[in-house]
Amino acid sequence: MSVFEDISAIFKGYWTTFSQMLEKPVTIQYPEQRREVRPRFRGRHVLKRYDNGLERCIGCALCAAACPSQAIFVEAAENTDEERYSPGERYARVYEINMSRCIFCGYCADACPTQAIVLEHDYELAFTDRRQMIFTKEMLLDPVPPGGQPTPQRTPGGVDLPAVPQAVVKRP
Ligand code: SF4
Ligand code: SF4
What we know:
Elements lengths: L2 H19 L23 E3 L14 H5 L5 E7 L11 E9 L8 H5 L5 E3 L14 E2 L1 H4 L18 E2 L8 E2 L2
Antiparallel strand pairs: 1-4, 2-3, 3-5, 6-7
One iron/sulfur cluster binds next to helix 2.
């Protein structure tokens, strides 16, 4: 390599450095500034409700079966007309996600027949204790929407509420 090429390489290096000094900084002053995530970003899970406040989750455990990390634990119980949490026969009495296992693949949301479990945009998942990484149903459940009722609800007897409530079937 000639002396000329050496000098040219040095100036090329300087130019790279100086050209970057003219660029706008890319640093985000988190947490004061937050960057919008992409629409399909998969963050912390949420358990959804219907507009009337009933829980979408019917305790079927398909999400737990689909989870490759075995991060979900579901224990179902029976609904009654006096104490109804969700449409259909059963609801999730216990629903837990171990966030230390979760790989945010979204398979649970894909497997859910009622679109109850959804991965939303919250990515602030920092913990100081492993026990804090177990998200319970109470932590995951969406608030009751305006005009809805909290669960459990009292529902009229003699009416079957399908698990996926497109229609209400009257018993004869
Ligand atoms: S996102 Fe994936 S790893 Fe996490 S709970 Fe759902 S299925 Fe399991
Ligand atoms: S979240 Fe969906 S798939 Fe999981 S138990 Fe509830 S209804 Fe079934």
